[in-house]
Amino acid sequence: MMNHKMNMETIPNEIDGAKVYYYLKIEKNHRPTGNTKQIVNGELMRPAYGLAICKYDNQIGYYLFGCDENWQSITDTYHNSVEDAMKQGEFEYEGTKNGRASKV
Predict the structure, then answer these.
(1) Which of 13, 21, 29, 66 has the greatest number of beta carbons closer than 10 A?
(2) How much is the pTM?
(3) What distance in Å separates the CA atoms of residue 87 and residue 62, rounded to the nearest whole number?
(4) How many domains does the chain have?
(5) Does residue 97 sit in helix, strand or coil?
């Protein structure tokens, strides 16, 4: 975990030790679909500030991280491909399919 604060404008190269491949800042046109509930340690998480598709060097698949305002991972889901991770993002947040997902 990083000790210093970032912001949504500063996109890290890594999140939780995983390389960032794609990211999307959640904006007004991206709304939670209600299709999923992210629960961490028994607590329902608030909507993410950003989504990032990342990969650990020692793993085959990719993670979709739901991040806070400092690009710290709050939630994650594992996927076999980037495309599957993107589909999960669309399943969780309306408007991400046509959003401005940027490649790092």
Answers:
(1) 66
(2) 0.85
(3) 12
(4) 1
(5) coil
User: Residue 73 has which token pair?
Assistant: 């991972």
List pLDDT tens digits, range 51-97: 999 999 999 999 999 999 999 999 999 999 999 999 999 999 998 87
94 DSSP β-pair partners: 31
Q: What is the CA radius of gyration of the chain?
A: 13
Domain assignment of residue 94, yes or no:
yes
Is there a domain that residue 6 lies in?
no
Cα–Cα distance for residue pair 30/87, rounded to 1 Å: 14
What single letter denotes the amino acid at residue 103? Answer: K
Tell which residue, 29, 74, 22, 21, has the closest CA to residue 47: 74
